[in-house]
Amino acid sequence: MSETLTETKNLLKGGEFLVKESNYNDVFTPEDINEEQQMIIDTVVSFVNTEIIPVYDRIEHQEPGLTESLLVKAGELGLLGLAIPEEYGGMGKDFNTNSLLVEYMAKARSFSLSLGAHIGIGTLPIVYFGNEQQKSYYLPKLASGELKAAYCLTEPSSGSDALGAKTIATLNAEGTHYIVNGQKMWITNSGFADVFIVFCQIDGDKFSCLIIEKGMEGLTLGAEEKKMGIKGSSTRQVFLENVKVPKENLLGEIGKGHLIAFNILNIGRYKLAAGVLGGSKGALEQSVSYAVERQQFKTPIASFGAIQYKLAEMATRIYALQSACYRAADMIDNKEKELVAEGKKYQEAIMLAAEEYAIECSLLKFIGSEVLDYCVDENVQIHGGMGYSEELSAAGTYRDARINRIFEGTNEINRLLSVDMLFKRAMSQKIDIMSPAMAVQKELMSVPDFSSDADETPLAAEVKAIRHAKKAILMTAGAAAQKLMTKLKTEQEILMNVADMLAELYPMESTVLRTQKWIEKSGEVACQTQIDMTKVFISDAMERLNLHGKHALQSFAEGDELRIMLMGLKRFTKYDTFNTKEARRRIAAKVIEVGKYPF
Question: Does residue 408 carry a catalytic annotation?
């Protein structure tokens, strides 16, 4: 992506996609990947195919030393240091490029989790919040794989309530060391980690973060957890009993550990979306391969309409997720560059950029993990009885996928967070939601305009649908806020309905923008599959959006008020009908032709 392109983009603020329109020239798509990024993708794919897949069964059985040695090999290729600045032994690549690593590493399954935890939540706290001494000492060794990292936040009594941690750190009488006592659980990489990023309460009430090293007396580990999936990753409890930690190992500032935890989670949520995108593509590839080979009634099952529906639906949801992921990653990347140009340090800039788009990160986390769950479930179904057998990989990918709806904040928490953050940004006037919401209220009371705008440009109907979808959300969320006021925060069902409406809108618009950009470059005829995917996705998304809105409105309105809003909802979620069966058959034909996700 050229600097000129970056400079001319009209960036929306976080959450502003609800109230403003974007131009397709302002979005980054997979088709915009540059030569250097493609080289990194090729390196990752080669590493996974040659180093991981041949030994995957050994990884799943946690052969001692194997994952650690593979991490070192990844470090030799530079894959552990993409996000680490060059002066500390890394490659200093941008957010987009780091996201590509996560996406294409997903095929490594359990190993991708081990690597992802190391380069993400394990290393980034030091990259972004470490002082010069900490960065100089730890980062080169983390980049090479000499040191492996783990992130210790969750405790037996605090999962989603991260700030409720009970691990205590108290400065000793000499003022030289913190004495740490507590227990952490579900800690990825804990079995072999050398560096532990540990969150604790200094003096019992100041949420803070310490760097604790393997070998410090009093740090012990529980047995490996027996997990449903991701069996090849190390997951243990970490026990801290009077561990003496030099006070120089304080990461960031006392009492500001939440800045580390929440900012790393924002990035982690996006990276999870990138990872499950890669996993979804892998599940589709498994599905089409089996469907082409498997015969019933002397015919490949890939020729059956019921199977083609599944292949097409998987591909369509992946296309929408992919479009949304690349759009969001580029917004974070461009915001970071903008802040650096204004004089911010890189570390502060990336944190502020991720915070700016925290709404999009939360949305993508639960959108993506649920797309993956759909894909792996249909993959098992297409495999039939063999899908339930551990002989093939369909069963393993199914088990591995389930954790993603729990990681990085459960999907329920992220639904609630996305709406809460949107309302807070509106109340603090960071984005103007009130004006467009009032305009929608006014439109509801006016006579509907049923005239045709006769716009025959490509995807004109889809662009109109997105504009109306925004009105449906503004009407529903605005009415809920006006009616319930402060009580709304306790009405989780309504908040989740609104979150689900947002989760339909963002990939809808991202998909249209991507396809418009593709049509501009290649023409309509060459983009038939992309157009089919876009129309199929929006057709179904508008139906789902209507249902989410109806559930919300019926929860707090009644009588004439409800009747008027339901009529408005129906008006705003109307979409021209077309033959989705034939469109899906065309999409499936493309998937079968190439043998995998086609884009």
Answer: yes
Is there a common fold for 3-148 and 151-251? no
Pick the CATH number of 262-450+460-599 from 2.40.70.10, 1.20.140.10, 3.30.2270.10, 3.40.50.10490: 1.20.140.10
10 Å Cβ neighbour count for 580?
16
Residue 598, CB-side half-sphere exposure with 13 Å CA sphere: 18
SS3 category, 312 = helix
CATH number for the domain running over 3-148: 1.10.540.10
In sequence order, what are the residues at sequence separation of 6 or more whose Cβ sits closer than 8 angstroms to the Cβ of residue 451? Answer: none
C-beta separation of 386 from 394 below 8 A: yes
Q: State whether residue 184 is helix, strand or coil.
A: strand
Cα 359 to the center of its chain, rounded Å: 11
- Burial zone of 479 (CB within 10 Å; 0-12 exposed, 13-18 middle, 19+ buried): buried
Average pLDDT over residues 480-484: 93
DSSP codes, 348-368:
HHHHHHHHHTHHHHHHHHHHH
Q: Domain map of the chain by residue range?
A: 3-148, 151-251, 262-450+460-599
Give percent of the chain above pLDDT 70: 97
Pick the CATH number of 151-251 from 1.10.3720.10, 3.20.20.150, 3.30.420.40, 2.40.110.10: 2.40.110.10
Asked if the model's pLDDT at residue 239 lies above 60, the reply is yes
Angle at CA of residue 149, ends 146 and 151, nearest 5°: 175
Cα 406 off chain centre by: 12
Q: Which residues have CB under 8 Å from 293's CB, separation 6+?
A: 300
pLDDT band for position 354 (50/70/90)? very high
User: Tokens in use for 389?
Assistant: 């057998």
Q: Which of 408, 462, 504, 509 is catalytic?
A: 408
Tally the residues of the chain: 599
Q: CA-to-CA distance for 290 and 461, rounded, in angstroms?
A: 36
